[in-house]
Design goal:
The protein has eleven helices and ten strands. With about 300 residues, it is an alpha/beta fold. It has an eight-stranded mixed β-sheet, sandwiched between helices. Strands 7-8 form a two-stranded antiparallel ribbon.
Length: about 300
């Protein structure tokens, strides 16, 4: 294993918006490197779970790109903290193109990794972008209507209606409406649940993440689906999930939907969902599995 890595701050464009990222690379590697573009959970910024994986994958020989999707972190775009998975999908495609444009990257070995809701973005990017080599998804929130109803329960219709109304107002006069992204007790937030609040709120307390969720986000969020991408997927796919991860039934539906001729592997265990974000032993093990999958399917 390579032990020394370097970080290069990079920028690339999508729809006239500048995206800012970090490219983690092994020091002293010869020849163009295999690469992986990493997309994180709902409301993520690059310094969270994506960076944990990028550091480890760089030590394993990859050029690993983490980036702030538009509206978040150091990337451009307004309104700030707007959560739009369709835009994240296009950001990921731009990240793939950026990596393939670099002379230090093997353009035929550009992989993608999605964490939590980023897995639904990664699946669609893998299916829609012809140049993706392989895909891995970790403890992902896979998106279909059945899964969204299981996530939000009786609040599904209310969130969708409020989101659509907020989008209509924004498009009419620029008026924005926001709620917290997380809250300890209030369920009328972007990511409801005490366990989510316990993980994210310390980032907000340190000033490293903004606890804000434009309500119009739900208009796009609840329209987005990834099951159709699974049904058409033709890239090798590694799924890492389990009964203690979010919406395991949705994960199984997606995995079962993949065409018979597509290489796929499922790793299913009892690791808790959020341990995949920040627990060193889990991160080490998972990164090694991702590396093994990408290497196994290297052309």
């Amino acid at each position: 294993m390579t032990t020394e890595t370097t970080i290069e701050t990079v920028t690339f464009q999508i729809d006239g918006i500048e995206l800012v990222g970090d490219l983690h690379k092994p020091i002293g590697a010869s020849g163009p490197l295999p690469a992986v573009a990493i997309v994180g959970p709902m409301t993520y910024e690059r310094n969270q779970a994506p960076t944990q994986y990028a550091k480890r994958l760089a030590k394993l020989g990859y050029a690993a790109l983490v980036f702030d999707s538009r509206y978040r972190g150091y990337s451009g775009g307004a309104p700030r903290q707007y959560e739009n998975p369709f835009h994240k999908l296009e950001d990921m495609k731009a990240a793939i193109d950026f990596l393939r444009s670099r002379k230090d990257i093997d353009a035929n070995q550009v992989n993608i990794l999605g964490i939590c809701q980023g897995g639904s973005v990664a699946l669609r990017a893998a299916q829609e972008h012809a140049s993706v080599h392989a895909v891995a998804t970790v403890t992902s929130q896979y998106r279909d209507e059945e899964g969204d109803h299981a996530w939000l329960g009786e609040g599904y219709s209310d969130r969708l209606s409020k989101g659509q109304n907020a989008l209509t107002r924004f498009e009419a006069d620029g008026t924005g409406e926001a709620v917290p992204a997380v809250d300890e007790t209030d369920m009328d937030v972007g990511m409801p649940g005490e366990f989510v609040w316990e993980w994210y709120q310390p980032w907000a307390d340190r000033g490293e993440w903004t606890n804000n969720y434009p309500r119009m986000s739900d208009a796009a969020l609840l329209e987005y689906s990834s099951i159709e991408a699974a049904e058409k997927l033709d890239k090798p796919w590694l799924m890492i999930h389990g009964d203690n991860c979010f919406l395991p039934d949705a994960a199984k539906r997606h995995f079962d939907a993949v065409p018979a001729g597509t290489a796929k592997r499922m790793i299913w265990d009892d690791t808790p969902h959020l341990d995949y974000y920040d627990q060193a032993l889990v991160l080490d093990r998972t990164s090694a599995e991702v590396h093994d999958w990408f290497s196994r399917h290297a052309s």
